[in-house]
Specification:
The protein has 231 residues and is an alpha/beta fold. The protein has one domain (4-229): 3-Layer(aba) Sandwich (Rossmann fold). The protein has ten helices and nine strands. Strand 1 (21-25), helix 2 (31-37) and strand 2 form a beta-alpha-beta unit. The longest helix is centred in the middle third of the chain and has 11 residues, at 91-101.
Length: 231
């Protein structure tokens, strides 16, 4: 899980909810779990590396999000997965498991790396790569756990398909606070948004273009937040 600043929008949204039973899936060192615990939530954590968890008084379970989770059906009111979906080789399976362990009416919050912002699209145009630092993070780190140290570019159309297949209803998307340079690129993002409307409606629907070019992604910062409900 990323640093606290990487899930600022997520924390703001959760702070507005009444406390309930929540699973912090891929909890990392526990920054988000601590935030919720201090606000009265019944926090449970899961991570493939539970030994990294830093805070006492919060139960943490060893769990591999690529596989079946060790929790009962309908065990949680809320499931939160912050900045971890791109580190799974089976994100579709993880989304299906999140659906299973949520009660009917429960909420799923996914804080996801934004690989389709205007800044990232421009970077790809200039560098021919999503990673401008010269080191490709795609695939499995050969020095790490092959199921716990994966890097995949999970794009919104894929995520939307996984949510739909699992049975979730997507309620809204929110952006991480954009930086000044994201705002400077706003006019270019607007041009991309206009050009996308030259594509046929069928192609736009199949590729989720209207959502991929919506403000939280195209005009947004490094992350975006998806809130989905289990009917």
């Amino acid at each position: 899980m990323g640093a606290e600043a990487s899930h600022e929008t997520l924390r703001a949204v959760l702070a507005q909810r009444p406390p309930c039973k929540v699973l912090d899936a891929a909890c990392g060192q526990g920054a988000l779990a601590k935030f919720l615990h201090e606000r009265g939530w019944d926090v449970h954590c899961a991570d493939i590396f539970p030994e990294l968890f830093r805070f006492d008084g919060i139960p943490v379970t060893k769990a591999n999000l690529n596989r079946a989770l060790p929790f009962e059906n309908g065990a949680f009111d809320v499931v939160v997965c912050a900045n971890a979906m791109h580190r799974l080789f089976n994100p579709a399976g993880a989304v299906a498991e999140f659906f299973r362990i949520l009660r009917p009416g429960g909420r799923l919050y996914l804080n996801v790396n934004n690989y389709a912002s205007i800044e990232t699209r421009l970077r790809f145009l200039l560098y021919g790569s999503l990673d401008h630092r010269g080191a490709c993070e795609e695939g499995v780190n050969p020095a790490g756990d092959p199921e716990g140290d994966v890097r995949n570019r999970l794009l919104y159309p894929q995520l939307a398909q996984y949510l739909e297949a699992a049975g979730f209803q997507t309620l809204r998307m929110l952006t991480a606070p954009p930086l000044l340079r994201h705002r400077w690129l706003g006019p270019l993002a607007g041009l991309v948004w206009l050009l996308a409307h030259l594509v046929s409606a069928g192609v736009r629907e199949r590729n989720k273009l209207d959502m991929t070019n919506a403000r939280p992604i195209l005009f947004g910062g490094y992350y975006f937040l998806v809130e989905a409900a289990r009917p």
